[in-house]
Amino acid sequence: YLIHWPVEGKYKAAWKALETLYKEEKVRAVGVSNFQIHHLEDLMKDTDVKPVINQVEYHPRLTQKELHAFCQKHDIQLEAWSPLMQGELLDNDVLKEIAEKHGKSVAQIILRWDLQNGVVTIPKSTKEHRIVENSSLYDFELDAEDVSKINELNQNHRVGPDPDNFDF
Questions:
Q1: Which of 25, 66, 139, 163 has the most CB within a 10 Å radius?
Q2: What is the pLDDT of residue 31?
């Protein structure tokens, strides 16, 4: 179970409810979505059970390096949503060049980059051929130069809402 957004004044109470479910063994794991470092620090200072996962927007234009390092330090698995930036990255020239080098699609390059960064990823597709393609990531590896080029694409650009400034 995940808390979807860090709604101010509500996420701690929601977390206590998840802790209860976890302690009663009604769920096997509890986590959060869209939590930034300050949300995690605030949550963990008053909790018995820490989140096992933090699902966040993560892609080459939003690498969230500090958050990723924080999660690694605290054994919280980072999970990517919108790893392809809602398709906006599929025409990126740098990614196309790397894809051509490996004989793969741009989507496969991004998903492989996620995996090599230790980030669980959730690509979305309804097309069977893309689902199959998205799972074919284990027969190649990005080298250090590829990873560096992809990392350099970061612009801290979101396609989804900002966890510190949302109203829904």
A1: 163
A2: 98
